[in-house]
Predict the 3D structure of the following.
Amino acid sequence: MLEFADANYQSRKTYFVEVILPLAIAKNYTYRVPFEMNNAIRVGKRVVVQFGKSRMYTAIIDKITEQPPEKYEAKYILDILDDRPIVTETQISFWKWMAEYYMCNDGEVMNAALPSALKLASETKITLNREFLGDKTELNDREFMIVEALDLQPELTISDITKLLGQKTVMPILKLLFEKNIINISEEVDERYKPRMRTFLTLNPVYHDQEQLRELFGILEKRAPKQADAVLAYIKLSRQQKAISKTELIEESGAGASSINSLIEKEILIAQEKNVSRLHMEDEGIFDVFDLSPHQQEALTNVKQQFEQKDVVLLHGITSSGKTQVYIRLIEDAIAAGRQVLYLLPEIALTTHIIERLRQYFGANIGVYHSRFNDNERVEVWQKVLSNDYKVILGARSAVFLPFQDLGLIIVDEEHEVSYKQFDPAPRYNARDAAIFLANMHGGKVLLGSATPSFESYFNARTHKYGLAELTERFGGTELPVIEVVSIAEETKKKTIQSHFTSALMLDINQALDNKEQVILFQNRRGYAPVLLCKVCAYTPKCINCDVSLTYHKHSGKLHCHYCGYKEDTPSVCPACGSTHLEYKGFGTEKIEDELAMLLPDARIARMDLDTTRSRNSLQNILNDLEEKKIDILVGTQMVAKGLDFADVTVIGIINADSMLKFPDYRANERSYQMLAQVSGRAGRRGKQGKVVIQTYDVKHRVIKQVIENDYRDLYFTEMEERKSFNYPPFYRVINLDIKHKDPEVLYNQAAYLATELRKNFGDRVIGPETPLISRIRNYYIKSILLKFEKDGVSVNKVKATIRDVITQFQTTKLSKGSIVQPDVDPY
Ligand code: ADP
Ligand code: ZN
Ligand code: ZN
């Protein structure tokens, strides 16, 4: 017996695993595997490890070796959490590529990639899931202790629970409780996607018999005339459309809900709950099939042909040309070939509108993934992608991190959108570019779609790196809207402007209201007024943490900082000179909404910006109200530009185009064109031609002219000349380094040091240090160093390695104390 055990011991090998910790650390650590776990270790499984003095983390196994680490003694892994890897090897390679490319650490990518419920750590907060209705008596002692403790104290950290149970690791128990839906891990907003149900009615087939129907009428007319009206209205409606909702019937018959309910009770009408498209019922029916128009068919064939040679194709299709319909055909093909599809959209465009539209075609195969979902649902989606249950994923930028098995196609809709870029924290990645790499790893294709492509993508298409397909007509032949440019200066002189609304714009708004049509007004600034100014001494209140003036918000009655969230009371006298002559300068969406309400007291006005869409479902509620025509005029920031598709919006007003056009950035013209063309694209989408009014001081601005003429190419060629002569992308690669410190003088020296070191390597490719537009945020002063590299003859990888070396060397100096250095590759 003893002999046998010994022999067995001899044959045991000692394994080590390199793991990725969810931390911003430069290298990965190696841990030792206890013998009894030898058979269970796999790349991509989660393990519990100790890091630092006493902190516990979930880490991902990245490599398995027999080589102990050289410089330190490996600690043991404490636990393995998974029976099966939850991260694929392809994903780990993808993470490593991202960390390399965007100059950050594997751990930072892991943090962005995994839903928080999958990366328990000592500080992770646990709460009870109040919606759990199952049987708690089946819990074992330990589980019961945890649940009981959470009943008394609604929130506990994992450390708390470790102490409570007096055992080393509690993560496996918590993982089980989470899977049983008993606890929540780091509670976030809960905005689960809920399909909207509507009650539809059909006439009991008995009454298809004319005789029976006549008899029914006879009875109803005498005893319940309202119910008779309702049945008549039903028959009338059923001649025009295939599905009749209860709401419609109530409206059409004027009979009231109680009469309809009686008909349902008597089984004269049969009610059925159906999941409906929120925004498209009227003109598309419920389970509609569609044919591509000849133009769309041509574009589709073109895309497919180009996919034979190219991995990426750009679909340049004007607004409302039906790009989505082309996507649907491509998705069908990919699914038929047994592969997965990722459909990326900007966060804000991920409304039930598009989700329902796609569910109609792909049913239960489609998963949705974005930041407004809670963690439980994100984990659910993660598992279903891993097990290949979801064939199509509709998601915002973070969906590139899902554990795809076999990705055949990625669609990046509105590929020009800035929101594909993550600004903070690292990884500062662009999901469009990451998607191209990801598809490549899977041997899949990428379709980029936009009415106003980014110059990078258009450049790649024109130089034949990508394929190019075009859609130049709106679906159904609807004309692009008529665009009128109105001079604010002139109307001010003639005194025909009322508050911020020119007479030209008011005329169109009134006309739309008379025709029971809807209006969208765009003002790219939220709040009421961005600046409060003392008329006597010119004092303006500034944020105490940032170098920005505070914006007045009428709703809260306070001054807000849009960078750090700081708020203070609005002063009634000037804090500097005591004068009471304080004036609000500039205007945001709140003020537009307010003043419009005074001019048009009967109009129903709503506002859509960051402030009105913060709470759960609020965005969806605004969109539903717009669809149901409970809103006449919607005032909003750039949010209104994204993918809204409403039949009755006929007038779009741009309150002031100037701030956008004058923004000091080399992309200002590209951005302004995109914004103006996209907002305009919301007008007259189905049938009716729309009208756009652009208010500006600069009526002759070249970009406005290009928007009017729908001349994207002219914009592109003129701008590219400038980009070329000033060494900007797409001709050059740009890397930005932000250096931050709480003391401006120390920062000055640090930035100067780094710039000098970088110049030693790259000469005049280094620009700066410069002070950015906003020189202090959250008490950190900021300096930027810009690096520009020509595309030919320079190895990006070498460049990045050198920059890393310079930063690492800097961080070993005394001077670097307290500094933060943030590289941003391909900054926006
Ligand atoms: P885009 O994404 O190019 O702006 P959409 O795909 O949203 O355009 O299409 C605009 C409108 O036209 C939508 O309401 C869509 O349902 C409709 N549409 C486009 N193509 C077709 C088609 N082939 N059959 C039916 N409706 C279509
Ligand atoms: Zn003053
Ligand atoms: Zn601030």
Summary: The pocket of zinc ion (ligand 2) is lined by residues 534, 536-537, 539, 574, 576-577, 579 (CB under 6 Å). The first helix runs from residue 2 to 11. DSSP finds 27 helices and 34 strands in the chain.
